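Z., the sequence and structure:
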Amino acid sequence: MEALQELGIDISMNTTQRVFDVWISGEIFQFVVTVCSEAEAEGCPIFAGVTTRLHWPFDDPSKLSGTHEERLTETRRVRDQIRAKIDSFCEEHCVASKA
């Protein structure tokens, strides 16, 4: 949360949804992105009916060790990798709204 708060993003009130709960909602997704590390890729969730499943492996910040500052530094690195990947994806797939 701290690394995202540095960017003005507050996730303190967010909750995790189970994959099954998302699936039974009936919502249809064109893309699903899993972010499990390579070591955990087989345990990543599967979404039935998804048009495109993308796997973007990142280190899991919850599994980092070291001092608070060392973990925060590594979490920032992962955060920045995720942001870069999203930006790259959007440059290719997202349609910008025209004013």
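The helical segments are 2-5, 19-24, 68-93. Strands lie at 31-34, 52-55.

Let me know what you think.
H.
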